[in-house]
Every structure is written in structure tokens, then in C-alpha cells.
Amino acid sequence: MDPAYSENVVDYRSLGNMPGYEWKLLRYKCRELRLEGVYHRHCHLVSVAVVTQLIIVIEILMLIHVILLFSVVKDIDFLNVLPYLAVMLLTPSILMPSREPNVEQYEAIAILVSCLMALLLTAMDLILPICYHRPFTLVPGYDHVVIVLVYLMFPIAFVENGRAYFLGLAVSLFYFGYMVLIDKISTLDKVWELTAYGAYLFFLNVLCMFLSRFQEYNMRNGILSRYQVVYQNLVFQLAMKEEKALLDSIIPVTLARSLQDAIASHIEEDPSNLIPFTKTRHLFMEPHPEVSILEADMVDFTSLTTTMEVSELVAILHELFVSFDLAANHNRATRIKFLGDSYTCVTGIPSYFPTHANACVNQALDMIEISREVSKRRNKKIDLRIGVHSGEILAGIIGLTKWQFDIWSKDVDITNRLESSGLPGMVHISSRTLGLLDNHYVFEKGTDTAKLDPLLQRSNLSTYLIRSRLPNFEDADDMEDDNFSLNDYRFSFSFSEDYEDIQVKAQRDMILEVEHMPVNRVQACKIRRPMHRIAKEDINEEYRFNLESYYLFTTFRSWKMEWSFSKMRDLLMKYSLGMMVFAGATIIAMDLLVKSEAMDYTMLLSLFLIILLPLLLASYKKLWLRGRRLSPITQPTFFLSRWIIKASDLIEKSVFVRIPLAIMVLFLLYVMSSETFSCDIARLELEIINSELHNLRPQMLCFMPWGVTYAVIIVLSLMLVIIGIPLIIKLGVGLAILGCHVITVHAYYGFAFERSQTTDIGVSSSLAHSWYLLAFFILVVVREGYLNYILKASYFMSMCFEKKHELTKVKTRTIKIIMANILPTHVAEVFKVRRRSDQLYYENFSQVAVMFATIENYEADKLGLRALHEMICYFDELLVNYQAWYKIEKIKVMGWTYLAACGLDVDHYTDFSVSVPVSTKRESDKLQKSGSVRFAPKDDDEIMIKDLHPTQATTNEDDNTVLVMTEFALNLLRIMRDIRSKGIFFEKDSKLTGSLKIGIAHGPAMAGVVGLSKPHYDIWGHTVNMASRMTSTGVMDGIHVTESTANVLRDFNIRCTYRGMTFVKGVGQVPTYLVDLDENLHFQQHSPDNDSHKGSKVSVHWLDEKRTER
Question: Which residues form the Guanylate cyclase domain (predicted)?
């Protein structure tokens, strides 16, 4: 699997832009990710938890009903309360088998238990009217409750093949048959009344079928959300493992941790700034008092660069350095760096061991032997000069960006002198190192050159040459095993196998994770698990959620979190509006069926059309998406269609639109159901009085009382399908509807409702209507409270994971910043994922401008590392301004020499080491200025340079790298000038004021990583050697360039002065030039007829403009 995989499996925006029902899309996704088993297990656990809730609901309803009967019925017959008491006693016993989460044949048990409960509740509601009270026409009091329970809370609702709708329809038919039985169908009006009741039952079934789909959507959404969290956590842990492994291979662990801590503090203080230590320049160093240092260099390497292809030369270097790294691991040596053909390593770090001198000399002898083998195999003359010295060092990094682990000390300089004054094929050691060795080596006096070296003389050191070990030499006991090979030591950060298995791991983790997902406020299913099997962090999450929310309405204590939850998109809103329209149609149909006289149907239809309009707007996008997927390319062409799609999006995502819209529709539906706008009260009262005087059944001219109550139940049931509205608002609207109807029943139309049928003997009809509504409202409150808890608990758990993710992200971000300051990002990715441990990684570039800048004319002992660090930091700060089209890449710092290159094609990756996010207009302006390279001094006059622009015919696109690099070199000179003028590091009156010698060359080059451990990005080729020689043979405070580079600068109207023929080792005499600068460090124009006294200033804004035009 691709390690960059980060798809959000429940991305609401993309899910809403796809054709098809959302729950079906999530179903397909679960099957694709092989999470169906996890989903069914979650359904099982939810079913077990809901059983407890179901028992509580039924017990509460029955208890209130019994109390109500004893309160309002005089001389109550115990037979009237017996069915309700029986339900209270039998319900726990019947449901108990379905509360076992791990029982076999659970599906069969769930179906059987659900059927028994449906039979029990239906019998409780109808057995007395059928068997004992046939003279009374009692209407069912719990038909609506039983139907909703079947679809939403009975165990059958959570079984894969339960087919709850069969049971729901069976219960509905039973109730409808009962109504046919008790009503004597003598007139056509009775038929219409029964038909209206059938329409009411049909609506409840259809509504609950939709609710079961909504329930599936919420549960699958919870599963996929948790899977996304688990998957991202695994990917993130693996990515951090890779980053950490690569980082630990480059920088010692203690130094890496210090860097991470410092950068983490920097991120907390200034999260928007990705450049660490811009305010405080930390110097990360570790002292090591007793170590041995090895410095190796290839003899006559310059001639090899001129006689061999760069790729062949780099391949040889890679082969050598891989073998050297293997030997270093065997000898417990730590490779520090390589500079072109030189190789530096140290023994005794990061942990001291007493035989470090022996280990270092053994490493040197092994390297000589390796070079001879490669020389023989390659048929090339490859010799090494090696110096070894023992002493103390400071190890660490310097600068702001592009760090390289390095060592500094006087003893390091001594080692370099030993190498340069040594002989090929021998190890040149100091007397201090010899004193630490045992008697296992063949040695002789050192070279005459070393005797004349001033540094060695001042240090009072004599030198010796080691040819080989004694024949009876054996490794010390603390050395590694001899049987060591590349197969034993794999510097491989290839975690591709882990990435391939990560989805399998996520699926396996989900099997455990589903056991911890929230299913109920009391977490009934978890209480039944042994405490030792409950994850500690799971308990913490539940405990934290209970602390962070109020119990009554499961409202977050933090209003920000509550508001964030409320703002979530509601992709089911269009279906909710569809059910509202269906509810309006059902109410109109029931009115048409039960009315005996004409009424104002124009008003009803007008209200219905108003309700229909939001549905058309909300569902338009889903209808338009049939057969296609919404994207910027597939947007509709007609402007009205685009606006309607935007309106659909707005209804889904804006809580300010959803809430008023839902309240308005529910209010209009209640108006349609209550019919208060069309009834003539005086006429209705007169008709009832006349009917009673003549002992006739009163004719309800405006409405049928139970028909109105059924219509209000339809309105209240819609609260179950509105997901994206806060629970408090829904309960408030429900209470308002309930209160209005109770007032209507008991006050406004009490004379009509009192003369309707009742549900229990001795209970007034008005009270029966009220309890019928209240019982259903209690069920709605319990159901909505449960759903609200589940959604908010899942959201809270996701937020907890997000916080953990952010904490881990900060840690990983610190590693990324460190890595980005060591290797280019694309190179680090190659090493983490695809590179074999012994595979050469390189890139060829046709035109690269290379610059060496060496700080000279200073006293190193007096200034110290702090001064070097500060000056390199100044240079690195300047580097930030060169990250546009022609980016300058800092390669490394070698002692007091700064190496950079322009033209390395690294635009295909994001450099975290120097990129700064833009958040304000001021920052945007700043970035825009730095996006184009300027030769103007920051405090000087801006001169229009339209006459200085070269023509396109005289310049090559690739030559722009030379222009950019030369401008960077000029700004380095200006920085050193400012350092001297302000006396920051150098005394103003001193002759040692610090100067830069800069050399630039351009041409083809190769960049890449060689060696087995501590990968470091480097460049090779004749161009690099020429730039180095331009520096070593250059002048103080000047820019020394080759003839080809001078010709390019002339094309850009920059004057270059011929210096003469300069000897370059390995090449011979070559013509070189100095870039012409005035006393203010401005470029001089090349045009001979321009005698401006202000000097020249070349801007290359036109480079960006030219690229844009192309």
C-alpha cells in the first residue's frame, strides 16, 4: 500500500457529492475495507446495550400507566391493571437471553425474543377489549409505541437477516384487524375512518424503515470513523518509526532528542514559523574528552575527476564508502562525514570504550585493504592517505538549516595534518595514539613533512607510520564478531512491507476496537466484561467523556466543542425533509378520508407546497448526481442549476439554515394536523348538543378527534428523523407541539375530544389522548437521548484521538524539520521507503551553479565555534530568500567553508527546513519579495533596470542559475561587511577582521547519497572541483569565477575582469575572472558606454516574469 495513503473514508463532502444513498455508499465502503464482520459485531453489542434501555422504557411506561389508572379510575377492577403488571414482570425475563453478548445462535434468539415481546405488548394492549370489554369500543393505546420499538429497539432491528419490517407489518395488521373488529362498518364513513387509520399505521412503518437506514448510516459512519482513526494512527506510528530510524542513523540519539525538544518548544511558541531557532540560535554540541579520530583521503582524486565519467567515479566512491561503513560497524567506529573523496570517522562515541585507539587503527588498516581490493577489481589506481589521532572533540551541528553532524577541536585539525602529511597505503598516527595502542602493530617513524608542520610542532607531537598488524593479531574481546556482512547489517529503512500490511493490521485492530466503542450511557455491555479485559485507556476515554458532558442532555461542558459538534454536516437532511413531505401528504390524505363536509383544502395544499419547496432544494443535488459524481469538472453548465446545488449544500452544512427550516416545517405540519384554522367552534358545539339531546352519535363536522391525535403523532415522530439539530432544540419543539395539543384537547376543543373513544375503562377520552401523546413523546425523548449520546461520544472519542494525533504530529513534525535540515525531502522519502541498504542513489543535472565560500583572515582559537555558528546562521537566514524558481540548496559546511548549489531540480518536493506558511497580507508581501532574487542592497536606492535586461536571444534558461548564485555570493559579501563594520566578532582595529573568499563555477554535476550509514546529500563532478579551486585560489572579499561563468554573467550585463591564468590542480593553467564590484558592493555593468557612478544593480524579477509568460 502506498505510504502516502490518507484517504478519509467518511469524508462528508466527497460522500455528499457521490450518487446513491449515503448508507449504501458506506455499506460498499465497509465491504471494500472488509469491515462487515466488525459492523455486525457492533450491531450485536448495540443490541445488547439497547435491551437494557428497552426494559427501562417499557417498565417506565407501564408503571406510569398503572399509577394513572389507580389515580383516575374509581373502584378500579384489578383485571384492568393485570396486563400492565404482567408486562412489567415478564419483560425482563423475556429479554434477558438477548443481553448475553457472546452467546451462540444470537440471531435466532434475537428474532424469537422480539416476536415474543411484540406479542406480549400487543396482547397487553388488546386482550381486555377483545375478551372482557366487548361492549366498549376501546382504541389501542400503544400501537404507535410497539411499532417504533420493533424497528428501533427490539433485538431484531440489529440482526443482519432479521427483517424487522416483517414483524412491524404483522403488528400493524394485527392492530388494523382489531379496529375492523370493534368498529361496526355500517356506513361509508366508517370505511374512510379505518382507511385513515391504515394510512397512519402505514406511515409509521415507512418512517421506521427509513429510521433503520438512518441507524445503519450512523453505525457504519461510527465504524468507518474509528477505522480511519486506527488506520491513520498506524500510518503515523510507522511514519514516525521511519523518520526516527533514519534520524537516529544520522545523528546520535542524545543530540537528536535535544533537537526534538528544542524544536517542539519552538513550535509551541510560534507554530506558523517552520524555521527553528530564528530568535534564539541554539548551539547543539556534546563534548567527548577521550576519542580517536580518523581522517582518510584519496590520493590524486582530482585527476580521477578529469579522466573518469562522474557516474563511474561516484559508483566507485559509493562502493568504497559502503565497505568503509561496514568496517566501521565492525570496529565500533562512527562515521562522521565524507567530503568528496575524504572520509572521517571517530571511535569512542557515542559511548566511550577504552580500546578506542585500537579500534580506530584497525578501521584505518581495514580501509586500506578495502581500497586495494576495489582498485584491483576496478582496474583503477586507488590509494588512501590516513591520519589517526587521539584526543578530545566537540560533536554536534551548527547553523539554522541543512545541518550536518560534525566534529571540531584542535585534535581534529591535528588529524587533518597527519592525513595530509602521511604516505599512501599507510596509517599516519600521533605519539598520543601510539601510547594507547597495544603491541600488535608494525610501525616506523613518521614523515619528514610532519616534522616541519607548525601545528604538530606547537602540540609537541611526534608521528609514526603503521604498515600492518602483527601476524598473531586477534581482535579484542569487545570487538564485533568477524562473521559480519551486509546481510547482517541492513541500513534499510524500507518499511514497504509494513505499509502493505497496514490495512490488515487496521482491520485486526478494529476487531478489538469495536469492543470499546460507545454503545450506551451506562455501557451495559462493557460492565459485563471482566475488569481485567477492559482497556485502561478505554476507561479513561469514557470517564473523560462523562466529565466533559452534562448527564441530562449529554451537552458538552465546553461550548466550543458543543458548537463544533452542532456544525457538522447533516447529509441525511434531504431524506428528513422527504419524510416531512410524506408526512404532509399522509395528513392531507387522512383529512380527505375523514371529513364529512368541505373545508379549506386550498390552505392545506398551500402549506404542503411550502413544505415541498425545501425538499426540492435539498434533494436537487442528489437527483442531479444520478449516474455522475460532482467535481469541479462535472459542474452543471446552467447557472440556475449551479445555484440550486449550492442551496442543497447550504442546507446540509449550515446549522443556521437547518434549524429554522426544520422548525418552520414542523410548525406548518402541526398547523395542518391540528386543523384549528378551519373549524367553526360554535357550529360544532351546537351539533354535539343536538346529537346528545336526541341520543345520537355526534357528527364531527371539522375533524375526527383520534384522527387529529394520530396526525400530531406523525408530526412528533418526525423528530426521530431530524439528525442535524441539537437535542435541546428538538425537545423544545416537541414540548411545544405536545403542550399545544394538550391545551387543544383539554381546553379549546375539550367538548369534542371528551366525546371520542378512550383507551381504558374509566379513563376520560381527553386524558387518553394526552397519555397517547405523552407515552410516544417519552419514547422519542429516550431514543433521541440515546442517539445524541452515541453521536457525541463518538465525536468526543474522535477528538481525543485527534488530540493524541496532534501531540504525535508535533513530535513527528520535529523529526521532519530535523530531517529536512539534513536531507532534501524527496531524498529522505527514497531512503525511508524504497532504497536498499547498499543501493547508490544519485541524480544527474545538466547545469548547476556551485559556490564555495571560505571564511579566512581570522583566529580560529580566539573566535571558537560560537562565532562560526553565528556566521553560518547569518548565511542560512539569507538562504530563505532564495527558495523561488531557482532555488539555492545548501549542501554542507566544511570547517569554515560554506558550500551551496543552484540548479538542483528539487521543485518537486516541499522543503520544510526553509518554507514559511503565509497567513497575513504582510507575510504575503514579504514572501512575494523573496520570491524573486534581487541584487539591490536592502537599505539602498531602487534603480530601474529596464535597460539592463538582456535579450532572450543572448541568454539561456539554464544560465539563470549562475545569475542567482552570483547574487547570493554578493549578499554573503555584504553580510561579512556588516559583521566587520559592526565589530560583532572581529575587532575593528585588528588586521584579522574576517573575510570571504568565494569561488563559483557552473556546469554538469551529480548529486546523491553514497555510503551505508548516515546518509548525507552531496554533489560531485568537475564543476564542483573547479568551484573549490576558484575558492582556494581566489582573493579576499571577491568572487572568483571560471571563464564560462564570466561569459554568462556578461550576458546578464555584469562586468567580469580577467585575472589571468590560474593553476588548477589536475587541470593545469586555466583563465579565470573576478566579478567586478564597486566599493558599495554593487555589480558593475558590462556595457562599455555606460559610465554610471552609482554602480550597477541587477534585478532578476524578469526571470519570474519570463517563466510566467512561457
Answer: 292-419, 845-1031
Give the separation between CA 318 and CA 328, rounded to whole angstroms: 15
User: Could you tell me the pLDDT band of residue 1042, with boundaries at 50, 70 and 90?
Assistant: very high
CA distance 155 to 116: 11
327-330 contacts at long range (C-beta below 8 A, 24 or more positions apart): 327/363, 327/366, 327/367, 327/370, 328/363, 328/1013, 329/480, 329/484, 329/489, 329/1013, 330/366, 330/479, 330/480, 330/482, 330/484
Query: Which residue type is seen at 1069?
Result: Q
Beta bridge partners of 389: 293
Q: 1068-1087, pLDDT tens digit by residue?
A: 889 999 999 988 888 888 76
Q: Of the candidates 956, 1018, 1019, 1005, which has an alpha carbon nearest to the alpha carbon of residue 846?
A: 1005
Of 154-158, 503-507, 778-782, the poorest mean pLDDT is in 503-507
Longest dimension (CA), the chain: 142
- Report DSSP state, residue 1012: S
- CA pair distance 970, 274, nearest whole angstrom: 26
Alpha-carbon span 403 to 389, nearest angstrom: 25
pLDDT score for 1104: 44
pLDDT for the residue 944: 31
Rounded to whole angstroms, the Cα distance separating 937 from 977 reads 12
Q: Could you tell me whether strands 284-298 and 342-347 are parallel, antiparallel, or unpaired per DSSP bridges? A: antiparallel
Round the average pLDDT of the chain to a whole number and report it: 77
pLDDT score at 394:
87
Band the pLDDT of 959: cuts 50, 70, 90. Answer: confident
Is 935 within 8 Å of 1083 (Cβ atoms)?
yes
Mean pLDDT to the nearest integer, 102-122 = 88
Across 654-797, the runs of DSSP E, i.e. the strands, are none
The per-residue DSSP string of 219-282 comes to: HHHHHHHHHHHHHHHHHHHHHHHHHHHHHHHHS-HHHHHHHHHHHHHHHHH-TT--STTSSS--
Give φ, ψ of 936 to 5 degrees. Answer: -75, 140
* Buried-exposed string 734-748: b where 16+ CB fall within 10 A, e elsewhere: beebbebbbebbbeb
Distant-in-sequence, close-in-space partners of 1011: CB < 8 Å, separation ≥ 6: 318, 321, 322, 324, 325, 335, 338
The β-bridge relationship of strands 427-430 and 463-469 is: antiparallel
Q: How far is CA 575 from the centre of its chain?
A: 31
Peptide bond into 155 cis (omega under 30): no
| Domain 279-470, CATH class in plain words | alpha beta
Is the C-alpha dihedral spanning 495, 501, 503, 504 positive or negative? negative
Pairing verdict, β 1038-1042 and 995-1009: parallel
> CB within 8 A of 1023, min separation 6: which ones?
848, 850, 1001, 1002, 1003, 1004, 1005
More reliable by pLDDT, 267 or 781: 781
Per CATH, the homologous superfamily of domain 839-906+955-1083 is Nucleotide cyclase, GGDEF domain (3.30.70.1230)
pLDDT digits 0-9 by tens, 991-1002:
556 788 999 999
Q: Pick the residue with more confidence: 21 or 1093?
A: 21
Query: Would you state the pLDDT for residue 570?
Result: 84
Name the one residue in this structure whose C-alpha cell is 465497509: 30
Sequence ranges of the chain with CATH classification 3.30.70.1230: 279-470, 839-906+955-1083
DSSP at 1065: T
| CA gap 76, 969 in Å, rounded | 104
Dist CA 1041 CA 965 (whole Å): 11
Sign, CA dihedral 965-969-970-975, equals positive
Instruction: Quickly tell me which residue has 386550498 as its cell.
Output: 602
Closest CA to 929 of 916, 946, 911: 916
The reply to whether omega before 660 is within 30° of 0 (cis) is no
pLDDT > 60? residue 631? no
Q: Name the pLDDT band for 185 (thresholds 50, 70, 90).
A: low
CA–CA separation, 792 and 798 (whole Å): 10
